Amino acid sequence: MSMASKSMLNAQALARSRLSYRCYNHLSKIHVGLGSTPYSTKNSKVTASHQAHSLLSPCKLLSQQKATARKFSQRSLGQDNLLDVSVDSSSGVATLKMQKPPVNSFSLEFLTSLCINLDKLHSDGCRGLVIGSSLPKIFSAGLEITEMYQPDEARLREFWRTLQEFWIKLYGSQMITIAAITGHSPAGGCLVSMCCDHRVMADGKLTIGLNETLLGIVAPRWFSDTLINTVGHREAERALQLGKLYSPQEAVAVGLVDQVVPLESVAATVESTMAQWLKIPSHARHLSKLQLRQPTLDRLLHTRQEDIDNFVSFITKESIQKSLGMYLAALKQRSKAK
Amino acid sequence: MSMASKSMLNAQALARSRLSYRCYNHLSKIHVGLGSTPYSTKNSKVTASHQAHSLLSPCKLLSQQKATARKFSQRSLGQDNLLDVSVDSSSGVATLKMQKPPVNSFSLEFLTSLCINLDKLHSDGCRGLVIGSSLPKIFSAGLEITEMYQPDEARLREFWRTLQEFWIKLYGSQMITIAAITGHSPAGGCLVSMCCDHRVMADGKLTIGLNETLLGIVAPRWFSDTLINTVGHREAERALQLGKLYSPQEAVAVGLVDQVVPLESVAATVESTMAQWLKIPSHARHLSKLQLRQPTLDRLLHTRQEDIDNFVSFITKESIQKSLGMYLAALKQRSKAK
Amino acid sequence: MSMASKSMLNAQALARSRLSYRCYNHLSKIHVGLGSTPYSTKNSKVTASHQAHSLLSPCKLLSQQKATARKFSQRSLGQDNLLDVSVDSSSGVATLKMQKPPVNSFSLEFLTSLCINLDKLHSDGCRGLVIGSSLPKIFSAGLEITEMYQPDEARLREFWRTLQEFWIKLYGSQMITIAAITGHSPAGGCLVSMCCDHRVMADGKLTIGLNETLLGIVAPRWFSDTLINTVGHREAERALQLGKLYSPQEAVAVGLVDQVVPLESVAATVESTMAQWLKIPSHARHLSKLQLRQPTLDRLLHTRQEDIDNFVSFITKESIQKSLGMYLAALKQRSKAK
């Protein structure tokens, strides 16, 4: 990314940071109001860029009302094909596949696209959501390290706020959410998996876990809360301190994933599990989910700005920057060696 | 139940709602004061109606003092043989068997009788309590649906308050409490089991679990708190969202029950477990129990009225009433088909 | 202990109670400032009494400034060889072996020595700490009963405050802490084990658990919090109510210990586990640990005085004193019989 485009993006990010949440809601409502759902044909494939285009009209409406909103809509248009989203209109189940090579890492743009798509699927009335990956052997490597290395502070803040936003939307989602973990799922990839209601992992030489500690950084409180809710306090202590990456068999043993099946059976297993969950009355199911997850969601919702401040202050420390730099250098070395 | 008797009962319930708790305490104290414990012979069988009669004298005293109290005592007298209570005076262990056909469902009257008996056994100095069922294949089906369908609001509020009362008394009981689960134990039946200190379940085609979601309703926060305390957060999430009914083997695997034995061994297993628990110094044991359960109890104690309001507001929603109506119709259809 | 020496000790304890914490910190800082670490040679053995001597200079400095501080330093000098501490300077791993016959019970002096040593090892920059026992078949029997029987209240309060202090230091320790449980580990012995990051227990006829209930006393809230964090709520309920002592195999099954190995393999297992943990970036590891343990630590830190008051009020009750007396008599009887 050129310096020019980067700073432009930061300017947009700054403008956005104050209205992003409300803006999302407007987009959703307007879109529903227009009734022009792009998810109308059975198993139709719609990529993120197509969606961005499909958002054009309502966003244009918005942009005529507010300059700030225009900036947001422009940015949506600038997205690459980061996601492959399809909806089975007969069942109301969406499949969202991450396709951001090489490792589906969460950049600000990718997180924004994920947030927009979650809102859109929800407002389109989808009842279920399968989150998977189009890339072989990788689910998601988690946060994009370059977002955190020598960062522009405004963008860094927006990056973290959008990550919070994504977690809030996914962890409390009204949809039935199932993770189809067909590849490695460290750090943020593990977080996304844990946010789902059910996790199916492919067997083989894959790993999953919150391994932030190995990079010298610390997963925020809401990452560890999510982990505690999934595997319990004791296992979370061990996992976080060691930055442990679990094999599929280890993961299922401690409850980090719910099922481990051969790679070729993941899709069918996810489908049959989803079919079972779809039989449950939706509203009561979602209220039950919130009853258990809302206290954890509230803990972040009540300290969101503080959490951003903490993250920025921690990650910009010289020592942390140094270890991120070394890690990036090692990554480059490794890819050169290949 | 005729319209007349129903509205009379509601009037009594209204009068009761303001003094029920204090009244329970008075009854207990007076009874102890008179020293006429009906649990004086070894393994003497005393049914709830006998107890009601045995409560006559102290209640009459009370009723001469207060008109409202009289209404309460009258109602106690009107109870059917809902419970079969016996006490082994040598060990101080009471056995309370629910015998309210067809499914030991918790009506307002049944819950009131349970509360009175818990208080009585406690004030009589019982050290242990086994909760079981006299009905074959059923422990308890939980809340009486008709209490929640097209309800009189005053009675509905009293119903919920009495359910809270029962949970508070049982979950924090000074007695060693063991559930002898010899039959199905869905919803409120599962709650009662979880309130005990130990759960023995008969093997076979039985189920146990909080399945409220399947009816389109949501178990209140204190139900889910009790479940989390029993099986942990992750299993509680799955159980509540799916309204999962566990087989005995599944239940013991996740810790929802402690032991699964053949039906004919349940009584002996309960007895030997009770014998083991009776060896522990009572006061320290109860304080240890409260140390772990009091925070959960407090959460309801601090929000009791709010919890009633929430329940009433939720259950009287048109959509919820509709699904309760459909469920009741399906139950009738099923019993006609037999 | 003679009456005279006991009351003198109490006077010291009183003086100390108001400044002990600050004093510890001063000692640490001064010691570091002097740079005279006694843990400088590889695998050098330093006993607690040597350490006490090694603390002479800085304490003398302090004692010249404050009379109260002098009393503290005098007392340090009076310690027996309660601990066997060695440090492997190449790895930065300390080994602290309790050697207070007959059962490594926690008296005020022993707890004070443990606190001082934890501070010292931490300020000397140790990265890992193995806690074990020099006594065969016993890890630690926990609190010294005589501290609680017919106590001098001032000393009792200091005793409890020092126990709190020890728990706070160990549970949140910056060091990697591993318990080498080569002998029985009831009550406070179990607490110390649970405070560590990892627990290796010898197989055989040993037991571990919080068995306070069996003595008619109740483990304080922070004991049970630590237990809940280790084995979960349900198992903690059963364990505390029953005062359950687990065999090594039972303990590993519920997660109370992490590994059970033959006695002769404990040291090697601890060493290889420590080597694995030492690879993790220290700062991030410790922050991860605090993220999970700080809420539990805070609960005591915010109610420390109240917790002391509760303990003193409970333990000095006539009924509790009576059962402690009977327990002590039984212990004497047993040792006479041998």
Which helices and strands appear, and what pairs or packs with what?
Three copies of one chain form a homotrimer.
Chain A: H1 3-17, H2 20-34, E1 44-47, H3 48-54, H4 56-65, H5 67-77, E2 83-88, E3 93-98, H6 108-123, E4 128-133, E5 137-138, H7 145-148, H8 153-171, E6 176-181, E7 183-186, H9 188-195, E8 198-202, E9 208-209, H10 221-231, H11 233-242, H12 248-254, E10 259-261, H13 266-278, H14 282-301, H15 304-315, H16 318-337
Helix pairs in contact in A: 1-5, 1-8, 2-6, 4-5, 6-8, 8-15, 10-11, 10-14
Protein name (chains A, B, C): Enoyl-CoA delta isomerase 1, mitochondrial
GO molecular function, one term (chains A, B, C): delta(3)-delta(2)-enoyl-CoA isomerase activity
Subcellular location (chains A, B, C): Mitochondrion matrix
Plain-language structure description:
The structure is a homotrimer of 338-residue chains. By secondary structure, chain A is of the alpha/beta class. Chain A has a single domain, classed as 2-enoyl-CoA Hydratase, Chain A, domain 1. Chain A has 16 helices and ten strands. Chain A has a seven-stranded mixed β-sheet with strand order 1-2-3-4-6-8-10, with helices on both faces. In chain A, strands 5-7-9 form a three-stranded parallel β-sheet. In chain A, a hairpin with a 4-residue loop joins strand 2 and strand 3. Chains in contact: A-B, A-C, B-C. Chains A and B meet through helix 10 and helix 14 of A and helix 9 and helix 10 of B. Chains A, B, C: Its main location: mitochondrion. Chains A, B, C: This is Enoyl-CoA delta isomerase 1, mitochondrial. Chains A, B, C: Homotrimer. Chains A, B, C: It is found in: Mitochondrion matrix.
